[in-house]
């Protein structure tokens, strides 16, 4: 099936085209920086964005949340949310 939108530029506000599982890690950045983060099982997420040097704690993230945040690293320490996907 042809992609009717394939001729348009892919920008940060465009819909995602891939979903990559997240493995929280205190020492390593995500393999790719996406447009958003999908959270399957809610909880707390400790993450650092592309423009920051410090991790921030996001509390009470609900199941099924789609967070429009460009995360560079999601830390294992303090993160209780699970089943996360980077959308890019």
Helix content: under 10%
Summing up helix and strand content along with how strands pair, one would put the structural category as mainly beta
Q: Describe the sheet with the most strands.
A: 4 strands, antiparallel
Number of strands: 7
Spatial sequence of strands, sheet with the most strands? 1-7-2-5
- Into which percentage range does the β-strand content fall? 35-45%
Q: Describe the global form.
A: globular
Q: Point out poorly predicted stretches.
A: none
Order of helices and strands: EEEEEEE
Cα(first) to Cα(last) distance is 21 Å
Give the overall average pLDDT.
94
The total of helices stands at 0
Rg calc: 14 Å
Give structural notes.
The model has no long low-confidence stretch (mean pLDDT 94). The strands form 2 sheets. Strands 1-7-2-5 form a 4-stranded antiparallel sheet, with no helix packed on it. A 3-stranded antiparallel sheet has the order 4-3-6, with no helix packed on it. It is built from no helices and 7 strands. It is an all-beta fold and 88 residues long.
